[in-house]
């Protein structure tokens, strides 16, 4: 695992909201993120469904699939990744200039603008694609230490690996002809999050 960030290593959030209102930024959700959102929404599954999307992966975006550390869930509706819904290009939880769930925001938001991606079966740390053009915090503030990058990466990747273990079990069932709907898979991830807390 190569978690050393190349190039410019300064970053300080400017609270611009560009990351929350950029249609090209996908906020993926782990089992832990889903359970936290479920709790924030008073355990109302219908409210949760209004706040997330099931992003479908297709053959045309195979490069993206190869880079993703979050494994897609094989459902009866296709291969999906749960993520926060976008409304008019903005995150469903963004109300300019604030994130409505900031203390409980998903892991991919907490690590932004850093991304951990797979390149030739190796996980590396990089800036989120195009973030150096859109994020005014890159190049400002203190230098991100190697220790910070490593600790954040370790925490993020540990959560991802636990999530992926659950997804692999779901996918094994799907291969045996017992695939769930996207909603059914979501319930399994939430239940797992509840069990882990």
List keywords for this structure.
single chain; 197 residues; alpha+beta; 3-stranded antiparallel sheet; two-stranded antiparallel sheet; 11 strands; 39% helix; 22% strand; globular
List the helices and strands and how they pair.
Blueprint: E1 10-11, H1 31-40, H2 45-51, E2 52-56, H3 62-67, E3 73-75, E4 78-84, E5 86-87, E6 90-91, E7 94-95, E8 98-99, H4 107-111, E9 114-119, E10 122-127, H5 131-134, E11 138-143, H6 146-175, H7 182-196
Antiparallel strand pairs: 1-11, 2-4, 3-4, 5-6, 7-8, 9-10
Give a description of the structure:
This protein is of the alpha+beta class and 197 residues long. It has one domain (10-190). 39% of the residues lie in helices and 22% in strands. The chain has helices spanning 31-40, 45-51, 62-67, 107-111, 131-134, 146-175, 182-196; strands spanning 10-11, 52-56, 73-75, 78-84, 86-87, 90-91, 94-95, 98-99, 114-119, 122-127, 138-143. Strands 2-4-3 form a three-stranded antiparallel sheet. It has a two-stranded antiparallel sheet with strand order 1-11. α1 (31-40) packs across α7. It is globular. The mean pLDDT is 89.
Largest sheet: 3 strands, antiparallel
Extended strand count: 11
Low-confidence stretches: none
Report the average pLDDT across residues.
89
DSSP helix count?
Answer: 7
- Based on secondary structure, the structural category is alpha+beta
Elements, N to C (H/E): EHHEHEEEEEEHEEHEHH
Number of domains: 1
Instruction: Note the overall shape.
Output: globular
Task: Report the span from N to C terminus.
Answer: 28 Å
Q: How is the largest sheet built, in terms of strand order? A: 2-4-3
**Strand coverage percent:** 15-25%
């Amino acid at each position: 695992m190569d978690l050393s960030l190349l190039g410019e290593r300064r970053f300080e959030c400017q609270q611009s909201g560009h990351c929350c209102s950029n249609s090209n930024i996908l906020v993926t959700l782990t089992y832990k993120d889903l359970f936290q959102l479920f709790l924030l929404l008073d355990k109302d599954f219908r409210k949760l469904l209004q706040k997330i999307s099931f992003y479908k992966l297709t053959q045309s975006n195979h490069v993206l699939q190869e880079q993703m550390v979050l494994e897609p869930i094989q459902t009866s509706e296709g291969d999906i990744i749960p993520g926060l819904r976008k409304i008019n290009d903005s995150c469903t939880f963004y109300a300019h200039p604030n994130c409505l769930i900031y203390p409980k925001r998903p892991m991919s938001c907490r690590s932004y603008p850093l991304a951990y991606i797979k390149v030739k079966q190796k996980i590396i740390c990089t800036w989120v694609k195009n973030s150096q053009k859109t994020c005014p915090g890159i190049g400002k503030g203190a230098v991100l230490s190697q220790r910070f990058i490593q600790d954040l990466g370790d925490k993020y990747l540990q959560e991802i690996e636990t999530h992926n273990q659950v997804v692999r079990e779901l996918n094994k069932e799907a291969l045996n002809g017992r695939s769930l709907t996207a909603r059914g898979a979501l319930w399994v991830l939430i239940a797992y999050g509840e069990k882990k807390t």
